[in-house]
Amino acid sequence: MRNTAKLTTAVLAAGALTLGLSACGSGKDSGSTDTSGPLIVAASPTPHAEILNFVSKNLAKKAGLDLQVKEFTDYITPNTATEDGSVGANYFQNQPYLDDFNKKRGTHIVPVVTVHLEPLGLYSHKVKKADDLKSGATVAVPNDAVNEARALKLLASNKLITLKDGVGSEATPADITKNPKNLKFKEVEAAQTPRSLDDVDAAVVNGNYAISSGLKPAKDAIVLESAKNSPYGNFLAVKKGNENDPRVKKLAKLLTSPEVKKFIQDKYQGSVIPSF
After folding, report:
1. Which residue(s) hold a covalent lipid per the annotation (S-diacylglycerol cysteine) (predicted)?
2. pTM summary value
3. pLDDT tens for residues 200-250?
4. Which of 55, 67, 193, 244 is the most interior residue, by most CB within 10 Å?
């Protein structure tokens, strides 16, 4: 999951050097951003890069935007690359994840515009209903703090477990107060949760990884996260100070256009939900 795709060694080396120099400084921008070139956006392959590629092929040219998409298969590099300037923006994450990332890594990434929600789902190759999980069943959950808490909340909202009152986006299995099925939890990297389905009784899978592995959240999930009042909308994000980059503003407008809404609805059939 930590490996990146379609990223050259030269870009990685330049990014690492820039990040190292930033770490020695005050954390503030040392210079202005060049807005004359293409806007390079880091994105997860599905659905983020697919949505961006739709914009690039169908809308960007008319809007005067040179958009380039870099695909990453992990949840770390898009933010570090945005922080060090290897890319101009990213599109893959939600607010609780970003808050946690900025706090732990000292980055300065900020959201620009929310585009869609990918409902988190519980999947199984062994049972067709959550109630059919046997006592002592093993459930795989993402091992990053925010997505693990989100997974536990999903299970709690469907009465499979009970969490401590008031527990937030840092919930862990230690915060479970009731576990009537004596479920056991296997923590794995988010990208690996679909692959774990043959080895566990069920797995909680992020929407983008579910779709890229051939699962259809709206159809295949035995439990699916509600989109109502969800804080987990995915957004376009930049390093603080670059929100007014004219290229970013153009992309934000295009990502929330009627054309993109129709593309999301037609392509993903409820497995990805527009948030605008």
Report:
1. 24
2. 0.74
3. 999 999 998 999 999 999 999 999 998 778 889 999 999 999 999 999 999
4. 193
